[in-house]
Amino acid sequence: MPDFDVAVIGAGAAGLSVAAIGSGLGLRVALIERGRMGGDCLNYGCVPSKALLAAAHAAAEARRAGRLGIRLPEPEVDWAAVRAHVRGAIDRIAPNDSAARYRGMGVEVVEATARFTAPDEIEAGGRRLTFRRAVIAAGSAAVVPEIPGLGAVPFLTNETLFDLEERPAHLLILGGGPIGLEMAQAHAWLGCRVTVIEAAPRVAVREDEELADGVRAALAADGVAFREGAKLLRLEPGTGADRVVAVLDGGERIAGSHLLLAVGRAPRLEGLGLEAAGIEAGPRGIRTRPDLRSVSNRRVWAVGDIADPEGIGPRAFTHVAGQHAGVLVRAMLFRLPGTRVDYAALPRVTYTDPELAQVGLTEEEARAAGHTDLRIQRWPLSENDRAIAEGRAEGLVKLVATPGGRLLGAGILAPRAGDMAGLYGLMIGRRLPLSALASMVLPYPTLSEGGKRAAGDFYAPRLLSPFTKRLIGLLKRLP
């Protein structure tokens, strides 16, 4: 008889969810974690980055209060106190993810490195654990690219950025994706000079270009400098406070005090002993079927950043880990046929200010997927009463729909755009027509009205058509 019904490798968002559900259903569960409970999200990612952004946002609001007639002095940034706030946010949430809490649920927590030694066996902390099912939730880590000279200069990743005891004088950020842009704006607001170096033609290259331009403009207004389409030839040690020099194609040399690598994520595959268990993996992660079951070992499943479902691909978002846990419960525990991952309504958010939220397909993605006839509905925040009242009227709601009114995607550039994304995810997931949004009664005044107005415009040509006008002309004669 196996030691455990389910052995989970990794106590990040995905692993914790699976362990809690499995134990709650009465299964014998082992949870193996070599590092900090809570994984990247709690310790190095979502929580500390949003805590830092909150502190930075407070400084930014003080600076721009003048737009509302409130004159405030330049805010004083106490870097030690900011770090304490970030650490405090982690510490306050940590008990929810702690080993003690999960042991209290009946989970056997093994604080050690896990390595497969057979198709149904894991070695951890000197113990051999046999299992009926194993779930690999080891997550991903920041990519450290091969750049000439990188070994000779100090650099940061998301795992070390929040430990800085000094405020960077000039932060060089390699990578203009969500992490790079969020940290660029946060540090600029906190009084740092910031330069973003991006090899692609533009930053936020995965996002709708129209909305990404708005993010770029906002960061540029905050003092962030950009080098887009820039090939980094090499890195060199600097002198004095400028400890790093980035040498770009064309000869430009940019000296900075700190360098942050934010060029992407890679699955944590090393050391897992996948070969001993016959588990196939590639550069993008562990190869699984759409139901997250390994293509080569039927006892093994993969969830979170490390999973690479066939025909779908990986997604490095914490909320995907929660979605994967739900798929696993249906497919692995309840054995429900036809269960599979579906990212049609998946939201993603870049937490700058304004935020850029995308649910479903962008216009470019929809056309690439074969939707040649689209209806693009826009509503600018310059026409939204709440945005005008708050002096924050820059932004846009952009809906991508079929000619019949089925929503394929929604992009939102607005303050707290992420808080509005759920509505569009529900519409796409439930295949609701734009008429459902257009007929909603929303509280006034709110930014959410932008989407309703965009949806309403979809039906305006029909409502104001010659046929409708003739019909109204006939109906007005009725008593």
From TrEMBL:
User: Which controlled-vocabulary keywords does the entry list?
Assistant: Disulfide bond, FAD, Flavoprotein, Membrane, NADP, Oxidoreductase, Redox-active center, Transmembrane, Transmembrane helix
Domain (Pyridine nucleotide-disulphide oxidoreductase dimerisation) spans 347-454
Residues that span the membrane, as ranges: 6-27
Presence of keyword Lipid metabolism: no
Q: Which cofactor does it need?
A: FAD
InterPro entries this protein is in?
A: FAD/NAD-bd_sf, FAD/NAD-binding_dom, FAD/NAD-linked_Rdtase_dimer_sf, Pyr_nuc-diS_OxRdtase, Pyr_nucl-diS_OxRdtase_dimer, Pyr_OxRdtase_I_AS
Query: What sequence ranges are listed for the domain FAD/NAD(P)-binding?
Result: 4-321
Similarity comment text for this entry: Belongs to the class-I pyridine nucleotide-disulfide oxidoreductase family.
- Name of the protein: FAD-dependent oxidoreductase
